[in-house]
Design goal:
Blueprint: H1 2-8, E1 23-26, E2 38-41, H2 43-49, H3 63-66, H4 72-84, H5 89-97, H6 102-110, E3 134-136, E4 140-142, E5 147-149, E6 154-155, E7 159-160, E8 166-171, E9 174-179, E10 183-185
Antiparallel strand pairs: 1-2, 3-6, 3-10, 4-5, 7-8, 8-9
The structure holds zinc ion.
Length: 186
């Protein structure tokens, strides 16, 4: 996996292009259905992503390019970082024009919530609880398990997750993490 990501990245930071101390960074709050949950980032970027170093807004001007990356986890990190920086007018401007597929945007939003207080909501904003039954409101490609869970598939006796935007449940006998907003309480 490391080789694959580093090859994809050309052994450069997928944000600023630096080749200094490039290593993998796992995107927080990645849904289990995503095969690619890591990005390659240089030490300067990684330290600011994980909060080890304070944010240097000008360093992230590189997001002008990174937000258009074809690589979903790169888009997710870029989009979340633009949210953190949106007091900078250039960052807000970039957020306004950024385009993310719905699933990528949901992934990005999963990292923006306050974990302690957010309820887990279905597609209609109805709060979900452990033990509820739901069904899927869109087809989900479960990449790790190699099948597509079809829209309408029931998921019984769900569990909540540490991440309020996710639930867990069994589909086709496999326990998977599902984005709560892609489900409807039955
Ligand atoms: Zn970098």
């Amino acid at each position: 996996m490391e080789d694959r990501v580093l090859t994809r990245a050309g052994h450069s930071c997928e944000f600023c292009g630096s080749k200094e101390l490039v290593a993998l960074y796992e995107v927080p709050f990645s849904p289990a259905s995503e095969a690619d949950t890591h990005v390659a980032a240089c030490q300067v970027c990684r330290d600011q992503l994980d909060g080890t170093a304070s944010l240097s807004p000008d360093h992230w001007r590189c997001l002008n390019d990174a937000i258009w990356s074809p690589v979903a986890p790169v888009q997710v990190v870029a989009w979340r970082m633009l949210h953190k920086l949106k007091s900078e007018s250039w960052a807000q401007d970039l957020l306004d024009i950024a385009y993310l597929e719905d699933t990528v945007k949901a992934w990005g939003e999963a990292g923006l919530v306050d974990l302690d207080r957010e309820p887990t909501l279905d597609c209609n904003g109805v709060a979900l609880s452990a033990g509820d039954n739901v069904h899927l409101v869109k087809d989900l490609n479960v990449k790790g398990a190699g099948f597509t869970a079809k829209r309408g598939t029931p998921v019984r006796n769900i569990s909540l997750s540490d991440n309020p935007l996710h639930i867990e449940g069994r589909v086709n006998g496999t326990r998977i993490v599902i984005i709560a907003a892609y489900t409807k309480k039955s």
